[in-house]
Amino acid sequence: MAAAAMAEQESARNGARNRGGVQRVEGKLRASVEKGDYYEAHQMYRTLFFRYMAQSKHAEARELMCSGALLFFSHGQQNSAADLSMLVLESLEKAEVEVVEELLESLAKLFSLMDPNSPERVAFVSRALKWSSGGSGKLGHPRLHQLLARTLWKEQNYCESRYHFLHSSDGEGCANMLVEYSTARGFRSEVDMFVAQAVLQFLCLKNKSSASVVFTTYTRKHPSIESGPPFVQPLLNFLWFLLLAVDGGKLTVFTVLCEQYQPSLRRDPMYNEYLDRIGQLFFGVPPKQTSSYGGLLGEGLVGRGAHSRGLWVRPRAWCAGRGSRAGRGLERGLVPAGGLRAPSCFPLRVPQAELVRPPMNNCPLGSLSVGHRIEARFLFVVHTIPHLNGA
């Protein structure tokens, strides 16, 4: 016990001496930078870095390079600052340091000070993310992605910011950024598409919670979106139902939902690709075997019924007149649930086994048109989801 205590005290004294030595060296280097001797100071920083690393003083080397980079940034010396920032990463990589909040914030700080258009910044963020993954093969630590996303958002680099938000767990921050992005750069007719891509991509990354948060926050805060659900925009209604279906995991619901909203999903060809992946992840759909869009949303999902014959009948009201409130809602892609009551001929929470041949005004399903059969099936499946029936 006494020997251990003495060793600990000696280690503490050595650490104090090392910190004191680093501080004295930093003072001399700072004086050189203040005098404008940038090249000389830069070379001295590099010399000390390799000296410390050779002595396995990784922490001292990292602290010295970090403070030096910040000093050069404050004097507008981007190249020297970026070089020392890369040395910070080198010290982390060789020391196999544990990923902690303090280090992630330091890296994010260096990133924020780099010239957005410099190639060094691209190299820096790539290595930083690789280090933060801890050798797990993932795309980087979620917290670092979040910090990078916020910096890029401040720079109004919305595309890059969105990418990093997708790999973080900050659905609320992503939604707030998308609201700003949409209002600043998008058309009014595209307000639903901004959040649609984010929701679908979050689901492709198996991040259901962030997908739900980004949807609810975006639709609540966007000034051009009326309160819902249901929403005026059919694509938003699709996303709402999709998030509910993901929780339930029923392939039938997912299949009919995608069939019913094909007109909205055709606005962006990537939606079908995302939904192929979502079907595999959450509904047990096997990977598609064909190229293009011949998989889940091709022959496997919408290749039957209306689409197998090259037909598509626009959703329209039935059990209600074409000009009725329910009819107008269906023509806009709104399902009569919540704000609109379902037709009285549809029982609620029907078991899956009873989803075939339901009555409609005393008419068997087989006598209906193709479009009406698809619509009837969709309404029955939707009403088996407890969330939509006040359950």
UniProtKB/TrEMBL annotation:
<keyword id="KW-0963">Cytoplasm</keyword>
<keyword id="KW-0813">Transport</keyword>
<dbReference type="GO" id="GO:0140597">
    <property type="term" value="F:protein carrier chaperone"/>
</dbReference>
<dbReference type="GO" id="GO:0071816">
    <property type="term" value="P:tail-anchored membrane protein insertion into ER membrane"/>
</dbReference>
<dbReference type="GO" id="GO:0005694">
    <property type="term" value="C:chromosome"/>
</dbReference>
<dbReference type="GO" id="GO:0005654">
    <property type="term" value="C:nucleoplasm"/>
</dbReference>
<dbReference type="Pfam" id="PF04190">
    <property type="entry name" value="GET4"/>
</dbReference>
<dbReference type="GO" id="GO:0051087">
    <property type="term" value="F:protein-folding chaperone binding"/>
</dbReference>
<dbReference type="GO" id="GO:0036506">
    <property type="term" value="P:maintenance of unfolded protein"/>
</dbReference>
<dbReference type="GO" id="GO:0071818">
    <property type="term" value="C:BAT3 complex"/>
</dbReference>
<protein>
    <submittedName>
        <fullName>Golgi to ER traffic protein 4 homolog</fullName>
    </submittedName>
</protein>
<dbReference type="InterPro" id="IPR007317">
    <property type="entry name" value="GET4"/>
</dbReference>
<dbReference type="GO" id="GO:0006511">
    <property type="term" value="P:ubiquitin-dependent protein catabolic process"/>
</dbReference>
<comment type="similarity">
    <text>Belongs to the GET4 family.</text>
</comment>
<dbReference type="GO" id="GO:0006620">
    <property type="term" value="P:post-translational protein targeting to endoplasmic reticulum membrane"/>
</dbReference>
<comment type="subunit">
    <text>Component of the BAG6/BAT3 complex, at least composed of BAG6, UBL4A and GET4/TRC35. Interacts with BAG6; the interaction is direct and localizes BAG6 to the cytosol. Interacts with GET3.</text>
</comment>
<dbReference type="InterPro" id="IPR011990">
    <property type="entry name" value="TPR-like_helical_dom_sf"/>
</dbReference>
<dbReference type="GO" id="GO:0005730">
    <property type="term" value="C:nucleolus"/>
</dbReference>
<dbReference type="GO" id="GO:0036503">
    <property type="term" value="P:ERAD pathway"/>
</dbReference>
